[in-house]
Amino acid sequence: MSLLDLPDELLVFIASALDFEDILRLQQVCTRLRGVVKSDSALQYALELRVAGMMDNPASRLVPGERLRILRAKEEAWRLLDLSDRRSIALNHNPSGIYDLTGGTLLLGERRHSENLTGTDAVHTINLHSAFSHAEEQDTRALWSNIDLGKQVIDVGLAIQEHDLIALVTYSYVHEAQMIASVDIHLLKHSTGQPHPAAAKPVLHFENIYYLPGHCSIMLEISGDTLCFLLNNYFPFVNADPVTLVVYNWKTGEPKVSQKRLYSDPTMFNSFVLLSPDTVVLPIIPTNALEVCQFADELTASHPPDSASPNTEASTSSRPQIPFLKTTCILQLPPLHPGALVLRMTCRCEPNPRGPLSSATHADRAVPFYSDPEKAIMILHLHIRLAIGITRVYTMIVHRSSLLRITQDALKHRQNEAVVNPATEEPEPEPSDEYRSVDQHSDAEDTDEGFPHVPGAFFHPFYNPHRHARRSARLDDASRSEDDDTDSEAYPITIPWETWGPAVTRWFADELAGTRWITTTCGQRFVRVRSDGRLRVYDFNQLSLRRYLHTRSMNGEPFGAHPGESILERGELDADEGDEDEDGEDEDGGVDNPEEDGEGDEEGSDVLQIQQERRIRVVLGTTMVADLSAWEMPPQSSLPYIETSFASPDEYESVLLDEDIIVGLKMDGNGRHIQEVVLHRIGGPMT
């Protein structure tokens, strides 16, 4: 009996155990198998999930056919950028500067005394989809829920879909005259506001520190059982170690690893992104680089040095020795102009990675699918002070999976070289074919047959980490004794920007107002409002882009044939979008911006109509940020994307992004407080 003698039901059962590439190949075998794959909604849903960069929610009550219908409707609506499904949310409190947006939940802090410029007394959350279940004329104030611990809140963290968890960081003075405050992390069940039942220690005491409101920033992210906590405390002339990063197991309340950075340390940072539950990337400000650090359970190292913070003796005697954070790889960013200085780096990658299903403490049945965290894009904002006395902002986009893959491959390559050539005196081996043939390499899991090739979409960078590791080792040998047997693997691999960056990133010149809010990405999409009033959505999903171009070509409508469509092909250079500084100078360095060619001083209704219509732009070629006052050489980047823009229906200072909702923010006249929140749901309800 052959495979084709089996009934369709058994063929579907067999195909359901195959991965994405194998299902694609299966339907190319013959007409019968193609029909089996095309006719089964579960198989089609599995294929569409992969192309859309989504993950199935096994807790959803919907059948595969309904999930498939919703997914296709969402993806088509994103392509059209349909903003007609709109709701305005009224606020029932005076918002503070604290906010978060993830998993369909928007959080805003409350400042009860509006004359104060700092401080958060409580937090309010709202389920965004609940606003669409109410009639448009109904008051939405009752949809907000309130959590008030009676303490000042200085940061929050959310893991709603995975754990129904909200973490609130508070401070309370224990010696107010000396300005010594206790910093604590409260682990609460979001739906009830009560201590989370999965937390053995519902309140994690961080430290007693010198604290002055407005001189401290905190960042907190949750992934699986991991809670990553970063404190930047710039209390003047008191704290010798202003930067502290601690990684907790929030269920047990025990710290996994920690790291302190001194004022004199050239590796200061003020934000981070979790690449996985045991890997974090740190944007290092003084060195203009990304540190990739790991904190696996098997990591063992010496405990951190004693802190200069108050109550040190009590904290060090009661706290177990915690291993250091281990830096495994350093990814250099584009070299700066000698007169330029990085003032600040902020980053985010939404959604956070999830732990294994067994570690989840909550089942969210409201959504059938959600963005795959591994395929999500990381956004990095660099605030650079130029020699001419102005500050400009530049934005880099890169996939989380690219950073993980580059780091892992560099480590594997160094390990292989250590096995093959353990003696450092021997000449360096020639790079393998995989590392030499960079233009021909593609990620094996993404070489799907039937799709056209997108240049740079799945680039695997050439890099010989052994060479750079030994170069760093040679520099350190001068200060090391001859009998020092330090293992070379203890030193992080340094990868130059030209080696890893151009093919897997995309750079933009940005506007300061738009970068005030960091929650502008979700999954593989990035949204922003420009000064021209157009709302732009950038989609960096490589599979979706390839299929879209292929489908248009097969239908006899190649992209660019319709009005409002443009394409930047391989090998072209495009000056990025420029901003206006306070002196009215164009921030793109004087290079013409093709995107603005049709938006100048032309008159007539035709130009006005074009501005109001939707525009779609596919960028496949290399672009550069042409600003020689910021960069030693203009950064070039080639990560393909599709940009859809539309005249914004409202005047927003900025827009935020969740899974399927664009959140528009309207501010007061001073630009300090949110006056109104407007929701645009893309593709209809999730049910």
TrEMBL record:
Record's compositionally biased regions (Basic and acidic residues): 433-444
Residue span of region Disordered: 415-450, 470-491, 573-608
Q: Classify the source by domain of life.
A: Eukaryota
SUPFAM superfamilies under this entry?
F-box domain
Q: Which residues form the F-box domain?
A: 1-46
Residue spans with biased composition (Acidic residues)?
Answer: 574-605
Q: What is this protein called?
A: F-box domain-containing protein
- Entry's InterPro entries? F-box-like_dom_sf, F-box_dom
